[in-house]
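> forwarded from #structure-qc
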């Protein structure tokens, strides 16, 4: 049986890269608090966008999708699900809303994790929502070309309830008794959760909900304004690689979870950096073209239309496309490639 002893985290020596991540995230967290106090109206504009992106991206990672128009209608409660994928998307949306609105009142205990899983499956005609797995499962990596690769065989069903209970106890002790920095305890917890893989389905999405929940409970609120799930979707291959490397010899308590810790910390730091960029764009009264121009000027090297849309959440796709075309026509930027591979760069 895998042992969970988070006291050992306090004794571990972390390399310079991990320590730099933690130091920078602490700095960004402090600056975010100033934004929260000074620019509340601008920040409100980012919340719904982040929720929509998180719901879309977390499901997209698992191959669950719908059209952009249907997604917007589902998120705005203007339609009802018409297939299995849309039922799953709507369930994630409700579970994510619960985390956003009630994180302070959700203890990190096995029964509350089960309740959150049940919430995620409330629109599905299945009997496993809110229950631990009853059949063996595996962790698969799904790559852009569609092929799957088994990267880990988790605990058996009979071991799962006790493992989740133990994991929650150790995490709570790490935060409350061992005085371990949450930025260390959170990715370790999420990695162990994924290695247990406690549910028949929905483990990846639950891990992302729990990441947001744990960060919120420790005062790291960036996921409210910038979608962490979107960041993970964009770097999905790196996510699977870090998970695979960190899981080697997990059953023998001999694994090194440093790659996964670094991946999660890098994701959090990238979100904080985007937060500041995005607030600086939306906080000034500018035309759509001026907003896109400012976003473009904040980019170094090549960038995509999606990069600019993330920085300009209050203007639509067509406005971004028109502004990029105008910037190309004026010789400020260059367009490269075609179709889905199009990207832009500053004009030399």
């Amino acid at each position: 049986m895998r042992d969970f002893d988070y006291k050992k985290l306090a004794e571990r020596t972390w390399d310079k890269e991990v320590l730099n991540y933690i130091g920078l995230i602490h700095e960004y967290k402090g600056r975010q608090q100033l934004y929260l106090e000074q620019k509340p109206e601008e920040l409100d504009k980012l919340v719904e966008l982040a929720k929509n992106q998180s719901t879309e991206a977390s499901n997209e990672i698992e191959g669950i999708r719908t059209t952009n128009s249907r997604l917007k209608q589902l998120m705005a409660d203007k339609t009802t699900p018409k297939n299995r994928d849309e039922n799953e998307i709507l369930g994630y949306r409700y579970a994510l809303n619960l985390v956003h609105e009630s994180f302070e009142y959700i203890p990190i205990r096995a029964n509350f994790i089960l309740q959150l899983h049940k919430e995620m499956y409330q629109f599905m005609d299945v009997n496993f929502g809110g229950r631990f797995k009853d059949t063996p499962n595996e962790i698969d990596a799904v790559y852009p070309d569609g092929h799957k690769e088994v990267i880990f065989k988790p605990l058996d069903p009979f071991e799962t309830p006790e493992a989740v209970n133990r994991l929650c106890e150790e995490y709570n002790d790490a935060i409350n008794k061992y005085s371990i920095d949450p930025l260390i305890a959170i990715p370790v917890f999420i990695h162990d959760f994924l290695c247990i893989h406690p549910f028949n389905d929905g483990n990846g999405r639950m891990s992302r909900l729990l990441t947001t929940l744990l960060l919120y409970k420790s005062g790291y609120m960036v996921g409210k304004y910038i979608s962490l799930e979107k960041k993970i979707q964009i770097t999905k291959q790196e996510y699977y690689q870090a998970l695979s490397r960190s899981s080697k010899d997990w059953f023998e308590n001999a694994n090194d979870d440093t790659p996964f810790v670094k991946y999660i910390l890098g994701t959090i730091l990238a979100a904080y950096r985007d937060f500041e960029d995005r607030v600086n764009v939306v906080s000034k009264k500018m035309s759509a073209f001026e907003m896109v121009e400012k976003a473009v000027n904040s980019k170094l090297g090549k960038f995509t239309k999606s990069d600019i849309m993330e920085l300009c959440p209050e203007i639509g796709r067509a406005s971004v496309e028109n502004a990029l075309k105008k910037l190309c026509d004026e010789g400020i930027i260059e367009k490269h490639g075609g179709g889905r591979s199009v990207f832009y760069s500053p004009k030399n």
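QC bot note: The beta strands are 139-142, 148-152, 333-336, 343-346. The first helix runs from residue 16 to 38.
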